[in-house]
Automatic annotation (TrEMBL):
Reactions accelerated catalytically: (6S)-5-formyl-5,6,7,8-tetrahydrofolate + ATP = (6R)-5,10-methenyltetrahydrofolate + ADP + phosphate
Entry's family note: Belongs to the 5-formyltetrahydrofolate cyclo-ligase family.
Native organism: Flavobacterium cauense R2A-7
Any single biological process term in GO: tetrahydrofolate interconversion
Keywords, alphabetical: ATP-binding, Ligase, Magnesium, Metal-binding, Nucleotide-binding
Enzyme class at the top of the EC tree: ligase
SUPFAM superfamilies: NagB/RpiA/CoA transferase-like
InterPro entries found in the cross-reference section: FTHF_cligase, FTHF_cligase-like_sf, NagB/RpiA_transferase-like
Residue sites binding substrate per the record: 50, 55
Name of the protein described by the UniProt record: 5-formyltetrahydrofolate cyclo-ligase
Example of a GO MF term: metal ion binding
Binding site for ATP: 3-7, 132-140
Amino acid sequence: MLKNELRLKYKKERKALRFEEIQDLSLTIANNCLSLPIWDKRYFHLFLPIEAQKEINTEFLLQILAGRDKEILISKSDFETRKMTHFLLTDSTRIMNNDYGIPEPVDGIEVPASKIDVIFVPLLAYDKSGHRVGYGKGFYDAFLSQCKTDVIKVGLSYFDPEDAITDVLDTDVQLDFCVTPYGIFEFNIK
């Protein structure tokens, strides 16, 4: 399917989810992440969910990361430059929703993308090759292309993969894994 078709399909699928379902599915996804081969890493980038888009509640995953004393990074997006700046999440980090409803740090200790070991990637859809569909602004593809080559890219999804995304671009960065409530998909792209 084409990316635009997948965006429409999965926005509709998400819209049908009730709050309780989102919480249950998100908790299961977080628990499934415990089986990933990532826990020897130090710097983890985590997205904070856009509640209006019914994104996966990453609070459960945040608690796991904090409980394992990982360095947790969250981002602030600049919609003019389409770049993301990454900040260390600390007890004193103030978070506010931007104009698009994205929770972001107000300020903090900036960390370069080159330090990040693992990135939990938001998505609407993905395929069996590890290609993903986001909201179409290109923020994450640009961010992922700035990271070190061995950064581990982990998608989080309520749903199983599509067979194939037909309009993949050369600039699209593939996932290494995608974690769902039903298990983990691993993509052999390296």
